[in-house]
Every structure is written in structure tokens, then in C-alpha cells.
Amino acid sequence: MRHSRTSMTGVLICVVLLACGKATDNEILERGKLLENNGEYVKAMTNYGILSKAYPESPLRAEAILREGLIAYYHQGDKETAQSCFSKGAAEYENSQIGQGCQRMQEFINSELAADSTETSYMVGLAYADILEDFSTGIAILKNVAERFPESSRAPAALFMAGFIAANSEKNYDEAKQLYTRFLKVYPDHEMAASVQWELKNLGKDINDLPEIDKITKNTEK
Fold first, then answer.
1. Dihedral sign for Cα atoms in the order 146, 149, 151, 154
2. CA–CA separation, 3 and 42 (whole Å)
3. Which of 19, 30, 126, 196 lies at a C-alpha separation of 20 to 30 Å from 205?
């Protein structure tokens, strides 16, 4: 019943918006993202649903569908709605990055790994960062895995990926340094520690200026 009321509200708002001609697809998407960032997840889902229904040809529709599915799955625990969104996105945008991301999420939900909350958070965090390129949201979710479940086998990878995204996608070297330093403090003997030390040592450097890369390039040219 809750979902029916939400759906009906979305339809009514959609009709009003179309009648008034006040909101573009971009405005609706941005409003949804703002609501999502503020933790108003039901309202965010409603906006994404409006965009999906009102602008079937919009290039922003795929993102709205994926975002609605991620919220439903991760924040609302509504697997049915999430599956519907991911299935729609995978079918309608199969050749796009978002469509392939929807396919991966759909497969994940149906796997045994989905029963593990840390695996779910890890997958959702990567979906935001890698597929939607919403780096700040992805980093926040990955950090949450490491903070809430430090003993989990997934925590080290989540912390590493949070640092890697901060450094290489956001160019936020201060945050990356904090995350990498924390990794080495909490997991000094982990198999990824050497990679973290390398990343920490070379933060902010152009890859072409690294001596290791220069050696590889010269050996390749021989």
C-alpha cells in the first residue's frame, strides 16, 4: 500500500509539472539528487520516477532509473522496486555504461553475496562512483563499510577504493592521504598494503613522471 500511494503521488506531480511546463528533465534530476543528498529518499525516488515517466526520450532517464533502484535497494530495503528499476535499465539501455551497471546490480541482488550487508554496501558504493560518477556518494558509502565493519573481509578493499577514488577521480589528495594512512594503520599486514604505500608515496604525481612507469616504457620500446 505504501508503494501505491508513492506511485500515485508521483503520477499526480508528474501531471502537474507537465501541465504547468515548469520543470525540465535536468531540473527534476537535480532536484532528486539534492533530496537524495539530504537523506529525503522517498521524495528523491518520486522525482526520479517522474523523470522516467514524463521524459521517456531524455538522455538523463537512464541515470534516474539507476538512482531510483539504488535508493530502493540500499536505503529503503525495497528489493522488488529495485529489481524493477534495474531490470528496466538493463533492458532499455543495454549498450550503455548505466545499462550494464543495472545488469550487474540485478545479478548481484540475485546472488548469495546480497545476503551480506558489507557486500551490498560495497557494490552500491562502486555503482555510485564508477557508473554514475557520483564520487562523493560512492566514497561516503565505501568509508561507511570500513567504519562500521572493520573486521569484515570487504573492509580493506572498501577503504582502499575510497582512497583511490578520492585521489584519482576527485583529485582530493588530502582525503586520499587520510584514507590511505588509516588503511596502513588498521591493516598494516594486508596484502594490499604495498599498493597503498605506493599510492600514498605518489599522490598527485603525473603517471608519466613516475620512475617505475618510465622504466616500463623504455623496456617496452626496446
1. negative
2. 10
3. 126
133 Cα distance to chain centroid: 7
Report which secondary-structure segment, H or E, holds 8.
helix 2-20
Is residue 172 predicted with pLDDT exceeding 80? yes
Tell me the mean pLDDT in the region 1-22.
Answer: 49
pTM, two decimals, is 0.84
Residue 71 C-alpha from the chain's centroid: 10
Least confident stretch, 23-27, 120-124, 185-189, 202-206: 202-206
Cα 7 from Cα 222, distance rounded (Å): 64
Here the cell at position 196 is 597503498
3-state SS record for 84-148: HHHHHHHHHCCCCHHHHHHHHHHHHHCCHHHHCHHHHHHHHHHHHHHHCCCHHHHHHHHHHHHHH
- 165-169 average pLDDT score: 95
Whether the Cβ atoms of residue 171 and residue 203 lie closer than 8 Å to each other: no
C-beta contacts of 108-111 below 8 A and 24+ residues apart: 109/73, 109/79, 109/82, 109/83
Query: At 64, phi and psi to the nearest 5?
Result: -60, -40
Are 145 and 155 spatial neighbours (Cβ–Cβ below 8 Å)?
yes
Distance CA 8, CA 65 (A): 18
- What distances in angstroms separate CA 112 from CA 51, 115, 116, 120, one per listed residue? 32, 6, 8, 11
